[in-house]
Amino acid sequence: MSFTHLECSRPCGAPALDPRTRHHLCRCGAPLFARYDLAALRSWTRESLRDREPTLWRYRELLPVFPGDTPISLGEGYTPLLHAPRLGAELGLSALFVKDESLNPTNSFKARGQSTAITRARALGATTVSVPTAGNAGCAMAAYAAAAGLDARVFMPRDVKRAFVEECTLLGASVELVDGLITDAGRIAAQRGAPLGWYDVSTLKEPYRLEGKKTMAFELAEQLGWRWPDVVIYPTGGGTGLIGMWKGFQELEDIGWVAPGQRPRMISVQADGCAPIVAAFADGRDTAAPVTDAHTIADGLRVPSAVGDFLMLRAIRDSGGTALSVSDEAMIDGMRRMGRLEGISAAPEGGATLAALDALVASGQVDRDELVVLFNTGGALKYLEVLSTSSVSE
Amino acid sequence: MSFTHLECSRPCGAPALDPRTRHHLCRCGAPLFARYDLAALRSWTRESLRDREPTLWRYRELLPVFPGDTPISLGEGYTPLLHAPRLGAELGLSALFVKDESLNPTNSFKARGQSTAITRARALGATTVSVPTAGNAGCAMAAYAAAAGLDARVFMPRDVKRAFVEECTLLGASVELVDGLITDAGRIAAQRGAPLGWYDVSTLKEPYRLEGKKTMAFELAEQLGWRWPDVVIYPTGGGTGLIGMWKGFQELEDIGWVAPGQRPRMISVQADGCAPIVAAFADGRDTAAPVTDAHTIADGLRVPSAVGDFLMLRAIRDSGGTALSVSDEAMIDGMRRMGRLEGISAAPEGGATLAALDALVASGQVDRDELVVLFNTGGALKYLEVLSTSSVSE
Fold first, then answer.
1. Nearest CA to A351 among A295, A293, A300, A292?
2. CB contact under 8 A, A174 and B103
3. Distance in angstroms (rounded) separating the CA atoms of residues B349 and B250
4. DSSP helix/strand/coil, B51
5. Which residues in chain A have Cβ-Cβ distances shorter than 8 Å to B75?
6. What is the average pLDDT value for chain A, to the nearest integer?
7. CB B373: neighbour CB atoms within 10 A?
8. Bridge partners of B376?
9. For chain A, which residues make up each domain, given as ranges?
10. What is the tens place of the pLDDT at every residue in B37-96?
């Protein structure tokens, strides 16, 4: 195995940390990154993937496991990269794709991060894991904790959609509904768990969810024949996916699997009612100011402040990308068009990427011959209440 | 390509039919089976699968396509076969697995059959497709019709769970709610569609959904290293999955990929409130009498009479299997145990397989060292209303 150490993502100069003991944030407050012996991994061949299972664990040399560790897997990752010719035609694009993360366990991309995080949590001796969540991360954590035999404690805003609560409960988690937003849920989860030694898997407050998410970059490369797309349009709440993919690009380039210098432009999509990264990007700031009165139907985008804000902004800028927000109405329209034209079940966050693409095409920021990937981070099923169903005959 | 003709599944002796034109049932009323040049396929090697995508189309030599056909694919099939050690320990079984079909597009195994059926429908020139459905088949058809650019008309019982209606609508289908059960929906769909030339994809009333479903057998073999399990426990409404797997076993044996003589016992699970196959099996009959007053929370099992009844009964008997029914309460208990112990999101139909296994272990019909596969045919998300959520703290 090539997993070697943890280090500050900033980096602040703090010494490397031993991943065989528990670590959450760097002493400077920044997220920690898992690091690997990338020089040694230059002897790892793409050919070896031929005989591996179609889950994110096919890339295990670049995942945080040690000899003897057993991944907690429910079939996550290696989701389809679907060509979307009808949506493309509507927009005048010749190479539009949708990475359909709804085909993960618990119907969302959150399964990736929880598979790696819970694998590490168990290896580190945790018996109870906890998470503050806008919904899907809690469901995913509940599933992997169940599969690992760990107790799961999920903290959600009281007004979260009912399906999230019910799915978490079905998967054996204890759910606590709290007043406020995910940031408030995080505060209460930490208060409850700290004295009891719960392992906190809050976004970017432990180093391993990011490692699961970065495999989205690996899959893009493998599915496109070891090249990157031109444009990646990604809905960003906590931002682990975007930050993770940026880290994944670097790692695959460093081990020689993809030629450097051709990374995609990373487009961050947020909701009009909660767009801290969009504001910070527009103002040229390195960090984002917390949003007050955050509101959107896309629970995953209702994140008023993110511990990884500076990492998101860095990746967007380094890639030549941008950040923009869309309305809730445009997200729903995006969900409906993905469904009607391509048969893809999209969450509002997925619909948001299509709404953003509309704007980028209109403004000329995406060229018609570019290879564009929209990330549908989850399915519609937990969000059905946001849709009306006026076309049913009775 | 090796797809050659259609023939009666009975068989009644009718001549072979040309699959380049539309056919639904045999002139004798029995389902039609797609047939292949299996002798020629003995030169097809398992090795060829190494470089193929993880969908059911990896087995395209045994699927109903001709040169130039483009499969309509949304990433269906090649679902995980999950080891279930905690459930196994609870039951005293050493090798219990769950084939988790919830990781298909639209969250159920119905995606398999619709991928192949809609691929053929489009190749045959259909512009409108229709289906009577208890829920999931309609959602899956809607998705594949959208991806194929076809109009979709879905006919459902009026009392179906709301999530099915909403998902179908999101995926662009026109939904008509009808009084009665799936059999009534089928009658009305046929009345509406016949004069208009709609392509009817009712269960087993066209030959191609079965072909998608049979790939579950192929995947079992590939995922178990080219052997069959000892026992397959499968929830049967229309029965396409069970009949399809039995056909798939034969085909893989005929091309030499799996040794003959070791097929699993096929266990059909139905609901106490709708168990026509269980009754016919117990009485030693070759066909099933229609159930009156069919009722169960498992919409997919609320099928009072099935055109493929004789094929189900034949497969169950030939395999040395059995048929049994379980209560709605036992299904819900099964859903909760799959969730809590293994992190698997199960539909009531999936929960029913676990409830059946409880009974089979208790009666000694399954041995503790047998390799048992439960089929979780779909996820819990469209069924959340059947669960209470009493464990949430407020």
1. A300
2. no
3. 26
4. helix
5. 79-80, 82, 100, 103
6. 96
7. 25
8. B100
9. 81-108+209-387
10. 999 999 999 999 999 999 999 999 999 999 999 999 999 999 999 999 999 999 999 999
Longest CA pairwise span in chain B (Å): 67
Confidence class for position A134, pLDDT limits 50, 70, 90: confident
Dihedrals φ, ψ of A81, to 5°? -105, 100
Rounded mean pLDDT of B358-377? 98
**C-alpha closest to that of A132 among A356, A300, A286:** A300
Residue type, A135: G
CATH fold for domain A81-108+209-387: Rossmann fold (3.40.50)
Q: How many CB pairs under 8 A join A and B?
A: 173
Q: Is the reported ipTM for this assembly greater than 0.85?
A: yes
Put simply, whether the predicted model's pTM sits higher than 0.80 gets the answer yes
Are the beta carbons of A111 and A75 closer than 8 angstroms?
Answer: no
Mean pLDDT of A121-147: 96
Of A170, A336, A384, the CB nearest to B339: A170
Q: CB A45: neighbour CB atoms within 10 A?
A: 11
Note which residues in 37-96 of chain B have CB less than 8 A from chain A: 50-51, 54-55, 73-75, 78-80, 82, 86
Q: What is the pLDDT of residue B392?
A: 54
- The SS3 of residue A361 is helix
Chain A: residue nearest B343 by CA? A143
Phi, psi of B204 (to 5 degrees): 65, 5
Per DSSP, A180 falls in state S
Q: Which residues of B touch A162 (CB under 8 A)?
A: 384
- Burial A343-380, CB ≥16 within 10 A → b, else e: bbbbbbbbbbbbbbbbbbbeeebbeeebbbbbbbbbbb
Looking at the complex, does the CB of residue B393 fall below 8 Å from at least one CB of chain A? yes
Pairing relationship of beta strands B32-36 and B3-8 according to DSSP bridges: antiparallel
- Residue listed under structure tokens 């299997």: B321
Please tell me if residue A104 touches chain B, with a CB cutoff of 8 Å.
Answer: yes
Task: Find which of B169, B222, B223 to mutate to test the A interface (most A CBs within 10 Å of its CB).
Answer: B169
* The pair of three-digit structure tokens given for residue B19, joined into one six-digit string: 């699959």
A182: buried, middle or exposed (CB in 10 Å: 19+, 13-18, 0-12)?
buried
Average pLDDT score over residue span A132-141: 94
- Average pLDDT, integer, range A212-240: 97
Contact assessment for residue B372 and residue B233, using Cβ atoms and an 8 Å cutoff: yes
- Residue B390: pLDDT band by 50, 70, 90 thresholds? very low
- Evaluate whether B201 touches B133 at the Cβ level (below 8 Å): no
Closest listed residue to residue B385, CA positions, set B324, B326, B298, B311: B298
pLDDT at A393 over 70: no
